Amino acid sequence: MKLLLAAALTVTMAASMAPAQTTPQTAPPAVIEDFRPSSLNQPGQSYPQVNSQGYARFRITAPDAKAVKVSLGLGGRGGTVLTKGPDGSWTGTSEGPLDEGFHYYHLTVDGGTFNDPGTLNFYGSTRWESGIEIPAHDADFYALKDVPHGRVEQILFPSPSTGTSRRAFVYTPPGYDRNTRDRYPVLYLQHGWGEDETAWSNQGHANLIMDNLIAAGKTRPFLIVMTYGMTNTIRPGAPGGLASFDIRPFQTVLLDELIPYVDGHYRTLSDQRHRAMAGLSMGGFETKLIAPRHLDRFAYIGLLSGGTMSPEDVKVTPGYRDKVKLTFVSFGSRELEGGRSGPPGGPRSDPRANAAALTAAGIRNVFYVSEGTGHEFQTWRRSLQAMAPLLFRD
Amino acid sequence: MKLLLAAALTVTMAASMAPAQTTPQTAPPAVIEDFRPSSLNQPGQSYPQVNSQGYARFRITAPDAKAVKVSLGLGGRGGTVLTKGPDGSWTGTSEGPLDEGFHYYHLTVDGGTFNDPGTLNFYGSTRWESGIEIPAHDADFYALKDVPHGRVEQILFPSPSTGTSRRAFVYTPPGYDRNTRDRYPVLYLQHGWGEDETAWSNQGHANLIMDNLIAAGKTRPFLIVMTYGMTNTIRPGAPGGLASFDIRPFQTVLLDELIPYVDGHYRTLSDQRHRAMAGLSMGGFETKLIAPRHLDRFAYIGLLSGGTMSPEDVKVTPGYRDKVKLTFVSFGSRELEGGRSGPPGGPRSDPRANAAALTAAGIRNVFYVSEGTGHEFQTWRRSLQAMAPLLFRD
Fold first, then answer.
1. Does A233 contact B at CB distance below 8 Å?
2. ipTM for the complex?
3. Do the Cβ atoms of B144 and A164 come within 8 Å?
4. Which UniProt keywords are present, listed alphabetically (chains A, B) (predicted)?
């Protein structure tokens, strides 16, 4: 099982490091000139821009530069090459429409890696990167709306095992402050490789997704706890990198330090059936390494583009059938092209087949696919929206 | 009074836009080669570095660039010019030691403005800028220590006057979650021009300053509420920019929307004598424009590098003497060189003289000077540390 996991990790993390790309098209549609600033631009910045088709247009001021490139674009050219205009600014448009949702990117200016000064930054690929948002047809579910809003609370919890105070963010639903007799279930939600504890609320909009679901009466209110999964100590692709990954340091932080702190400082329901763990990409693999081995603690398991749960996995895990109330597995449809859970060369384990086999074996599970998206945050936003209403219903 | 305020604002904001600089010295000390990564570097990044004397050393990879400059350094050269090494990286050391504490900066690469990919970014000058921390002799008071920690909670509160949900951060002290019968005073704390609601907790470490003061028994625990002061709608220096600044939109958000929301969702002491308002630089001027005219709401007033309170100001404010329990005014010593509250050419109002006159007139006030710092966050960290213990003692 260890080897299988390692193989799957390689694939998932390689995908997470690849720049966001669309499937190359033989004839991209003609560009419609209705470009508007991306919603993630810094205040007052007019570039980058996006149009109604999903094209992105970039403009960078660097009058004395020799070459400026954007890491985002179509696969064939490794990004979008900008060209210099008479005013000294560099401009370029993606060769085709980009997938809906959030994309990380960066610039290469005369051989150096920099962020686009026009946009906000988001932590990914072990550094703060530029972000752009391609308006999605279903963007309403994570929009800031006139509904009651929960909070995102930064806590600093003591961690004797790592010798410091560690940071986590806790989403508390609307009403938590006033319903002082109520206690709440908790979802521990992990980011992917290269990211950190800021990802799910910054680029994931986990708080707005929950606010909107709760306002619509579609989910039970619960807390979400997001902390750094200590994922970035390994360098995927480096020899021996993956083999050296050890889940134990993070498992200690999570099980022995963070969970007791949260249960001690929030009005939680602290029994097994009111605690869930889920994660995206490498956070999904962490979930799979920790939760099934601690079924006295977790009743719900979510793997978002982070591997699958097979009948064999269940078989080797005592009590899985009775204790796990739901196994949620999701992918972006682009990740499944070819019927696999990753890009070509990935593991031979078909997540749809695994889900069907679990169902046939009477194991409660849901398999969700985000249409038209890949190993990116739009897949995970949708996955959270799909998963949240299924949690803590037993 | 309006004209006087406008003149003072011009000076304060001009200072806030100027790059951080040390006073030029005729003979900077010889550089000691004990450079270490700045504490604000991104994970794993070894540059920029700082040494024990306060020199900063920068290294940027941009092999094909023609010129790379850092906006931080000594005044005469407008920053630190980097030189290219044989490996294609650009390196340079500040010409002299920089002031203790936090500095904003950015790069100029072939005529374009970019952030240093080595550091974290902080919102200042209306954009996310690079930050560097020169270790201060008194850094302990805002260090992350093994003491009980409060929270920094992001709230989204409804704002009918601006037609959206607005963001604020609320510091809640350790114990707030457990002492469910206790109610707390509130300080409304404003950032400066070019900054936003993230400044006081990110670069200001307001939460850690409070955690440490509370752990030492030096201050009464209270809440701090930080929201965007709508300061950046004006462009200081632009013709008519300052004259067009209107405090009313922010005053409406603060008084009619945010304060009622906080009093409705937190266990506050909501009477006048348990509410304070303070701000740095332009946030101080906002405080002076709002609080004295609403003494039914505020009992404590703090101006941090943001103007002074004169006997004339008090005279034209009915009830000031009785209702204002404390007026706190602070500056960095570099701001006072020449005995003025700003750089040469600034207003003729001497803050020390004003403070002495208030004292002579029996108006309770404290005048605080941060030694060896200018119009920068080290001054304001120290000011908060000095002010907090004086609040809510009546």
1. no
2. 0.92
3. yes
4. Signal
